[in-house]
């Protein structure tokens, strides 16, 4: 299967929200989002987050080494939201769910690194903002969020024991309510 290409752009939460609202979801529409963590690299291994060079290296890895048709849709660190595989096409990230879900990679090893403090908490905040946007734009219930380890064809604990699915879902639901509390009133994490 030919390589689907990458967007290769990074956004703040506000910019990501505007970007997603500009997309046309006509040829493919996901049913849910799957959360992943990069594990390697960890937050400690990327003290300045992900760079354009890292994203370029990931493209080479998925396309040329793995021979995949695409990669995950998003890479999120403590600074920005990177759009990798175009959001309007299926990606490659979870064996059972590639054709029906968006894949969101969070920078960090949340088996050992905190998801609730320090840089991990900022990754979490950016992730919640991106998830709130995606669920609102696509009209998907946040309760459908899945963790990679829930894929029956996955054998590792991704996105790590420090990621609470229930807490993420609750925060996404709360942010959607806050954003849509008043007409066009948007509270977006920066």
Keywords:
6-stranded mixed sheet; 190 residues; alpha/beta; Lysozyme-like; disordered C terminus; 12% strand; globular
Task: Report on this structure.
This protein is an alpha/beta fold and 190 residues long. The chain has a single domain, classed as Peptidoglycan recognition protein-like (Lysozyme-like), CATH 3.40.80.10. 32% of the residues lie in helices and 12% in strands. The chain contains four helices and six strands; from the N terminus they run βαβαβββαβα. A six-stranded mixed sheet has the order 1-4-3-5-2-6. The longest helix has 21 residues. The N and C termini lie far apart (37 Å). 39% of the residues are buried. The C terminus is likely disordered.
